[in-house]
């Protein structure tokens, strides 16, 4: 009787590395966020503007 070759098991687990639909990749940056005129923004303004930018609500 002829035996079939066994499928090799991958050591790479796709289950643990699969990104869930609600997960977004982290964005890490350094520097000062400024207005178009070059004025630095306060930290709260930076965060708010970054959220608007990333969510596509910038006009």
What is the topological layout?
Blueprint: H1 14-17, H2 43-55
Describe the structure in your own words.
The structure is a single chain. With 59 residues, the chain is mostly helical. Helices cover 29% and strands 0% of the residues. It is built from two helices and no strands. It has helices spanning 14-17, 43-55. The termini are far apart.
Percent helix among the residues?
25-40%
Q: Report the end-to-end length measured between terminal Cα atoms.
A: 71 Å
What do the pLDDT scores average to? Answer: 65
**Count of distinct strands:** 0
Largest sheet: none
Low-confidence stretches: none
Strand content: under 5%
Instruction: Provide a count of the helices.
Output: 2
Q: Helix/strand-derived class?
A: mainly alpha
Question: How would you spell out the order of helices and strands?
Answer: HH
Backbone shape: elongated
